[in-house]
Amino acid sequence: MLDTFIARLAAAQCGSGVDFLSHIPQFVGDWRPTRWGVGGKVLQGRGHLGNILVVATEQRLTLAGSLNKSVKGENITPITIEEAAAAVERLSAALCVPIERATVRRFDFGACMEMREPVENYLQILGRLVYKKRAEAARVPILTGKRLASLRYEMQYQNKPAAVVLAIYDKIAEMKGKGEAIPEKYRGTNQLRAEIRFCKSVASYWGMERITVADLCSPTIWRAAVDIWRQTINQIEKMNNNNEIREGACESVGAFVLRFLRRSVAQCGGVDAFIEKEIKAEQKRGKMSKQVAYKCRKLTRRECGYEPSEGGSAIAEEFNKKVEETAECPA
After folding, report:
1. What's the CA gap between 329 and 1, in Å, rounded?
2. How far apart are CA 104 and CA 167, in angstroms?
3. What pLDDT was estimated at residue 133?
4. What percent of the chain is predicted at pLDDT more than 70?
5. How far apart are CA 331 and CA 71, in angstroms?
6. Burial 119-128 (b: 16+ CB within 10 A, else e)
7. Contact by Cβ (8 Å): 186, 76
8. Residue 19 in 3-state DSSP?
9. What is the pTM of this model?
10. Which one, of 3, 225, 266, lies nearest residue 126 by Cα?
11. Which end of the chain is flanked by fewer CB atoms within 10 Å, N or C?
């Protein structure tokens, strides 16, 4: 389930006298300088080792890419913990530096789940996320044309950049958009991908001084990441089937306005999230009286015709079941 990672290795971690700018170019493809100093001296360069981006300065080496793709050629089929460790060993051998000692700056942990219905149907039932009762995650719907293709939940604390991001999206659509080849066994399937991205202050989030690439391949971190993945997804409020948000013919101005109300509620992630984000926010700004807010809440609950629920529909039950099965049998 380990996928994309970004890690940095200092020259001091490799022994004395190591100069990455002179050492690395011989081992990577398409090497090119990217930054120059006084007198045209090269300060930084980059190249690729397979699908892994390698960036080097004299004293620092940065690696970024998908470990899953480096093993499987794609990241629908998950790698095992043993395959991840073996991939790290191959990187170290190919670059002749101890990559396992590199400090992790970011890593993604995710899985693809094959669903019965189109992925968009599952995205439509996913509401707001109150993350570990400490902060509500910002829910960002991403549209492709008029189709809901992806959801991002950005966990923010004290208005700082998102430390953790949960992304749930249509994997096949993403691969088509990037022009990537879809393996034959996955063609025509509905692949819903859910991945949790540890983006900022990775070590402090885990209560550690630092996390190395070797730590990512340890059973302790691996199992803990699976548990966080499952718990975070399970904390998303599931709405009843989105088909209940009926859009009839706009035979009046009122019907036209209600259509946009229903769409706004769906984009916010449900009635409760809409009330919190729109109606209560207007009250706090002093733009809406208590009486008007009460009427708006009543109208929203009556006209949108659905509430958050633990299950509530076959599609939500299937989604919950797939998450549990994936977490119980991680690669």
Report:
1. 11
2. 20
3. 43
4. 85
5. 13
6. bbbbbbbbbb
7. yes
8. coil
9. 0.78
10. 266
11. C
